[in-house]
Amino acid sequence: MQNPFENAMRQLTRATAVKQFDSTFIEQISYPHREIRGHIPLRKDDGSLQMVEFYRVQHNNWRGPYKGGIRFHQDTDIEEVKALAFWMTLKCAVANIPMGGGKGGATINPKELSITELEQLSRAWMRALADVVGPQKDVPAPDVNTTPQIMAWMSDEYGKITGDRSGAVITGKPLEVGGSEGRGTATAQGGFYVFEALRLNFGLSDSCKVVIQGFGNAGEHAAELWLKAGHKIVAVSDSKSAVRNQNGLDIAALLEHKKTSGSVRDFAGGETFEGSELLFEPCDLLIPAALENQIREDNVARIQAKVVLELANGPTTPEADDVLFAKGVPVIPDILANSGGVTVSTYEWEQNIKGEHWSEADVFMKLKTNIQEQALQIFDQAKNLKTDLRRSAFILALERIAKAQK
Ligand code: NAD
Q1: Which domains, from first to last, does the chain contain?
Q2: pLDDT at 389
């Protein structure tokens, strides 16, 4: 597995080869401000003790408080969290929201925990970090395997420790405890708005064949949104398996099947196949919505999609980027394509601070206007600089961060 932080740094070097920046600025942005790691003693239901490694990386706060999700995953490590925190700094700048970048995690498979163990772990994560997070310091959010319920436990724990019950310390909460309308679907919704803003430039029709890797928060909602807009979802996968149907999958039925069986595997409305083959299905649009390092030098030649839209963070390596760019396959980069999540998270934070509650229509109208403006700016700049969309997005972000630093 390639080191995601090294890949992120290579992306930075490649973007700054297209447009020069002050070298001391680039040097500084290459290092996180702070890396925190430690161990949580988790008392299991059977009385045994498990020491769980946890992380918070505060990458950069020149544009605002550190902001970024928390990942609970058995393979999460400090290098992954550092990469994700760096991308958050750039993403918040691309989204033009007043936030810096951070990320957190814990190395554990939460699917193996009981509900009481998961609550304990979530509260202990917040207790361990309560000193360094806060509405004006660092505002976490959900990521892989962390849910609104987990955000609610963490928000409650922070309130007990500090007395601040505004909820503004963490976003992605349930509506009942200060969550925002639209946050649950915001990542996919933002990706869809970006796709709509750029679709005709890529020669795509309004009835595309779409393939989605990952069927969690980002992937499931993407399937529903693209389907609703008239496209066909011809294949999806999760960590266990993949399923395809050239006539289009019935997404409502597939969601039901996943809910009862725990996987997309053996869905009656399609053909089950190896999850590792999913990326190579013929389609107009491929949406990676799972983990990093999926499209790489060793498998990129087999990609048949006309366009790639990254809802996952870091799914394409720099080598694969080059191959796709040379083939004329646009890759809409993560720091633009999935920035709807952090944008609506920031709206949630703002509503908590002001004591307001905005309607879903207001949230999505603000999101659409903002994200489509950034998408078009990145697209036009890529054309002018004769570069790919990732380098263009990096350049836009770096310019904004450099201005803030000055
Ligand atoms: P999630 O935990 O809700 O879902 C992850 C999904 O990926 C699950 O269906 C899981 O089975 C699947 N998966 C895991 N490994 C896989 C593999 N090897 N092949 C196929 N599927 C696999 O997580 P999520 O919140 O949907 O996050 C997915 C991606 O989107 C991550 O990269 C995350 O950082 C990114 N992202 C999420 C948000 C958000 O708001 N949730 C925002 C921005 C970016």
Answers
A1: 34-168 (3.40.50.10860), 186-337 (3.40.50.720)
A2: 98
